[in-house]
Design a protein that fits this description.
With 142 residues, this protein is mostly helical. The chain has helices at residues 8-21, 25-38, 42-53, 59-73, 85-98, 102-113, 123-141.
Length: 142
């Protein structure tokens, strides 16, 4: 997925990721929320929600933000957004798994699997793919 590095929302998300890398969680969260609040497009909202989800205090709150990101992504009629769907479904599946809702977890892991062809063949793509396959193994036993 290509990001326009001149986009102010993408700049805020990148700044937040830098803060994450430096262990400055509060500063990162502020950047992600500012990105959400200044987003003008569905794509910007989707990506911002995806980052906000990572910093929620409860699994339920994380699930709500992950679902918000997914619901927005599903309204975007661009081929490129499909590369984000495996990650979004993976995150939702893991939330359901953490909530002991194995049926919904398994369903979302399978949905994530159905979009694997849109992942890039790099370290990120391989990590997402491994997470999906591991989640499927765990939830098919439950």
């Amino acid at each position: 997925m290509k990001f326009d590095t001149a986009n102010p929302v993408i700049k805020l998300l990148a700044e937040g990721m830098t803060f994450e890398g430096e262990g400055k969680k509060e500063e990162a969260i502020k950047c992600f929320h500012k990105a959400w609040n200044t987003s003008l497009t569905d794509f910007e909202k989707c990506i911002s929600a995806h980052y906000i989800a990572r910093h929620q205090n409860t699994v339920i709150e994380k699930l709500e933000w992950d679902e918000k990101a997914l619901n927005i992504a599903l309204t975007i009629n661009e081929e490129e957004i499909k590369g984000l769907l495996p990650s979004l479904y993976l995150n939702i599946a893991k939330c359901h798994e953490d909530l002991n809702n194995y049926l919904n977890a398994n369903k979302n892991y399978k949905l994530a699997l159905s979009y694997l062809q849109y992942l890039s063949n790099d370290g990120y793509g391989k990590m997402i793919c491994a997470g999906i396959r591991n989640g499927l193994q765990r939830t098919e036993k439950s």
